[in-house]
């Protein structure tokens, strides 16, 4: 009996040791935090670390030949965007965040043939995060530029009728896209509209004359504007014109008088002689003219005639101010002083006494208004700067954005 009991106690004791070991192992839980739930519902594992904000940038890093109309987009997960900077050549690209600051999208086109760098910062519960990237935009097969802006003479003062004329370096295919890039702002705003004269020339005219004594600024945000397949604007433009006093001259070919007003006040009365009207080309045109340029002297030759033809003339005149492209000027005519104020004897111009013609020449600005009445010939809207001849409702139909 003693031997049997002795043998029985030995396995039981061994079983107790094994059980104790198992209990110890199950309590250890593989290193879990005491605060976390375990697999058996008791004390569990530690919580995973909160992830850092994940920033994504498009176009992707190293992208090349990116089209300028593509937007730069920066997004973040598990956080908020704190700062986004996109620039090329030290020039920042504007953009906007969404309401939750999880997305930033660039505004406006990218600059062609440029390398952009992108830098973004974000914050979140997992801590701060940063990301950087760079990409290159394509080089256009053809470039769209502005060849000329009128007026664009530094320090020039213009009249209240002055249009803004923009000529491009090549025919414009996508007139809507290009016109959207053109902006006119004034210290004393007045409504206006662009009109395409041809594929390369667009002109801005206001619904009524510019308010006098102010500055008007023209800008063309052409950089990156797509005009066709692989055709893009490659730079922006800006110019400011100064609108001076309201110089309005009224000419009556019947009373043979010209009255000049400055800001509504009469500053000069001139006896004149207009076209003799024996033919259409010798008939002064009715309507709203703008002063365009001047010369002293100017050589005038009969239109459509050569030396020896009936009615041919070649005259050198002083103090001449152009008011149309059909050969009309306000100019000095000492040979017709006896007719000025009494009869129309010119070839279509407005002739004046030498001293008064010089006064007009010295005081005019490009874009001053000359209204002529009393004849049977109407100034065509596209004769010189006769743009005021077109009713504004009709004028604005020439905009690519009309309707």
From TrEMBL:
Keywords: Acyltransferase, Cell shape, Cell wall biogenesis/degradation, Peptidoglycan synthesis, Signal, Transferase. Residues 247-373 form the L,D-TPase catalytic domain. Residues 1-30 form the signal peptide. Pathway: Cell wall biogenesis; peptidoglycan biosynthesis. The active site is at 331 (proton donor/acceptor), 349 (nucleophile). Residues 30-61 are annotated as: Disordered. This is Ig-like domain-containing protein. It comes from Sphaerisporangium rhizosphaerae.
């Amino acid at each position: 009996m003693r031997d049997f009991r002795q043998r029985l106690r030995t396995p039981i004791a061994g079983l107790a040791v094994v059980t104790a070991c198992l209990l110890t192992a199950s309590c250890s839980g593989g290193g879990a935090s005491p605060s976390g739930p375990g697999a058996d519902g008791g004390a569990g594992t530690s919580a995973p670390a909160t992830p850092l904000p994940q920033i994504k940038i498009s176009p992707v890093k190293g992208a090349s030949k990116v089209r300028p109309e593509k937007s730069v987009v920066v997004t973040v997960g598990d956080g908020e965007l704190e700062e986004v900077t996109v620039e090329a050549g030290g020039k920042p690209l504007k953009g906007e965040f969404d309401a939750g600051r999880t997305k930033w999208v660039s505004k406006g086109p990218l600059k062609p043939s440029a390398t952009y760098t992108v830098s973004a910062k974000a914050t979140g519960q997992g801590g701060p995060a940063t990301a950087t990237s760079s990409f290159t935009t394509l080089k256009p097969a053809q470039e769209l530029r502005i060849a000329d802006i009128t007026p664009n003479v530094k320090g020039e003062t213009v009249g209240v009728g002055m249009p803004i004329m923009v000529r491009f370096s090549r025919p414009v295919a996508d007139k809507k896209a290009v016109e959207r890039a053109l902006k006119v702002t004034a210290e004393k705003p007045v409504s206006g509209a662009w009109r395409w004269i041809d594929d390369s020339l667009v002109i801005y005219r206001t619904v009524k004359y510019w308010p006098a004594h102010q500055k008007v600024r023209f800008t063309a945000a052409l950089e990156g504007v797509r005009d066709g397949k692989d055709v893009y604007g490659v730079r922006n433009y800006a110019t400011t014109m100064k609108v001076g006093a309201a110089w309005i001259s009224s000419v009556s070919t019947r009373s043979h008088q010209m009255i000049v007003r400055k800001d509504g006040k009469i500053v000069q009365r001139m006896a004149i002689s207009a076209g003799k009207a024996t033919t259409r080309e010798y008939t002064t045109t009715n309507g709203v003219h703008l002063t365009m340029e001047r010369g002293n002297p100017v050589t005038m030759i009969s239109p459509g005639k050569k030396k020896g033809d009936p009615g041919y003339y070649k005259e050198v005149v002083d103090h001449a101010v152009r008011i149309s492209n059909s050969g009309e000027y306000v100019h000095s005519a000492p040979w017709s002083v006896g007719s000025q104020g009494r009869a129309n004897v010119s070839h279509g111009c407005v002739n004046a006494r030498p001293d008064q013609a010089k006064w007009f020449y010295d005081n005019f600005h490009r874009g001053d208004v000359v209204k002529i009445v009393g004849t049977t010939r109407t100034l065509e809207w596209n004769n010189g700067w006769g743009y005021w001849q077109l009713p504004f409702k009709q004028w604005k139909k020439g905009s690519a954005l009309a309707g």
